[in-house]
Specification:
Substrate binds at residues 45-47, 120, 229, 280-281. By secondary structure, the chain is of the alpha/beta class. It has helices spanning 32-40, 47-75, 83-91, 94-117, 124-142, 147-177, 203-212, 229-240, 253-259, 284-293, 325-328, 369-383, and strands at 5-8, 11-15, 26-29, 184-188, 216-222, 245-248, 264-267, 271-273, 278-281, 298-301, 307-308, 329-330, 333-334, 347-350, 357-360, 363-365. It is globular and about 75 Å long. It binds 5-S-methyl-1-O-phosphono-5-thio-D-ribulose.
Length: 390
């Protein structure tokens, strides 16, 4: 199975997804700003993958922030001194100094969090991960951890986000495979695979698990305009794993449902509101409407970190609008008049009423979603899997 990112020697190495399937190239990131740029440019993409990348980016941010203070300390010719001791020298009493230093560091850390959150607004996994890291750093400061300890704990937490994502996808695969019929002919949109996560995938994770059980006859992969995540990434990923795949352009989805025996649709999600309305790659809404018209069950697969329990419904989900040139041209080739008006939303919202079930690592949620999502929230809060404790 393909790898999306690696954390090696204090650097985040990202598979450049804009180059696939033509070439396999890696990007080495040693600043949070570079990771933010990679998220913005879709070099790393897919809700869980950008969440994990952002968690590592927060580690990089913390390191640079501390490094800056160390440089100041060294300039004051006190390089052997602990940073906290240096702060004490600057600010007086040790306790007061340590507090003041932590506050300054946390303020800068908050800035890094906000910058990363701004890189892509729709997938809530991004702000879920940066909040997790920021809140943990605040708790570590309250608990009196020194800077090297904080550094080590933050790194551990980011690795946990990464590792848990793979574990969650495997669980989703187990639950999801149960809803996949024998001789399944599945339609999926965009890429919700290993490439969009830390491994295995959400929608494609379910498809992988169902394939292991011998249930998958064919996967129809929508090309997914404008950036072709379906034909470039999903098709590539499934072929790598010898899972039968047929690529279609987006405008062939309804006709394929009518003529090709599609008996289930499974896609990923970027943000799910408390009533089940779901944002996913632009075009998903149309696929859900067509599935409804053909009596085909439409499923979403997403981890709990993709739910935004604070939003009542889908109208509150921020929808990213991307550069018009993504539509006016493709990979440098002009495909429209250069001054034509363009509407380029990256996502749309599928109303809950079109969704048969939402596959999560806690099980398959069924309508009415307001109730099943409330129950999910209770389970997530009870588990507090990622809350840092001293
Ligand atoms: C498991 S990934 C779920 C979603 O993030 C995926 O379906 C999607 O819409 C990705 O959009 P992208 O713009 O490629 O990041």
């Amino acid at each position: 199975m393909v790898e999306t990112m690696k954390w090696e020697n204090g650097k985040l190495i990202l598979l450049d997804q804009t180059k696939l399937p033509v070439s396999v190239e890696w990007i080495s990131c040693d600043t949070y700003q570079r990771v933010g740029k990679a998220i913005q440019k879709l070099e790393v993409r897919g809700a869980p993958a950008i969440g994990a990348a952002a968690a590592f980016a927060m580690v990089l941010a913390w390191r640079k922030i501390v490094e800056k203070y160390e440089t100041k300390r060294d300039a004051a010719n006190t390089s052997n001194m602990q940073l906290q001791t240096y702060a004490a020298m600057l600010y007086g009493s040790h306790d007061h100094a340590a507090k003041k230093l932590q506050q300054q560091l946390l303020k800068k850390f908050l800035q890094a969090r906000n910058d990363l959150d701004a890189s892509r607004p729709t997938a809530v996994n991004l702000s879920w991960a940066t909040k997790l890291m920021y809140d943990a750093a605040c708790k570590m400061s309250e608990a009196g951890l020194d800077l090297p300890q904080t550094d080590a704990e933050l790194e551990k937490l980011a690795v946990k986000v990464y590792e848990q994502d793979i574990a969650k996808n495997r669980k989703m695969g187990e639950y999801g495979a149960e809803v996949v019929p024998e001789e399944a002919v599945i339609l999926t949109h965009c890429n919700a695979g290993a490439l969009a996560t830390c491994g295995w995938g959400t929608a494609l994770g379910v498809i992988r698990s169902a394939h292991e059980q011998g249930k998958v006859k064919m996967v129809y992969s929508d090309e997914t305009r404008p950036l072709l995540q379906g034909s470039r990434l999903t098709a590539w990923e499934l072929l790598e794993d010898n899972i039968p795949v047929t690529t279609i352009t987006d405008n062939m989805a309804a006709w394929s449902m009518k003529t090709k025996g599609i008996n289930i649709v499974i896609t990923g999600a970027d943000r799910i509101a408390a009533n089940g309305d779901t944002a996913n790659k632009i075009g998903t809404y149309g696929v859900a409407l067509a599935a409804k018209a053909h009596g085909i069950p439409f499923y979403i697969a997403a981890p709990a970190s993709t739910f935004d329990f604070s939003l009542k419904n889908g109208t509150q989900i921020p929808i990213e609008e991307r550069n018009a040139n993504e539509v006016r041209s493709f990979q440098g080739k002009v495909s429209a008049p250069k001054n034509v008006n363009v509407f380029n939303p990256a996502f749309d919202v599928t109303p809950a009423k079109l969704i048969a079930g939402i596959i999560t690592e806690y099980g398959v949620l069924r309508p009415p979603f307001s109730k099943s999502i409330k129950e999910l929230k209770t389970k997530v809060l009870r588990e507090e899997l990622f809350t840092w404790k001293a």
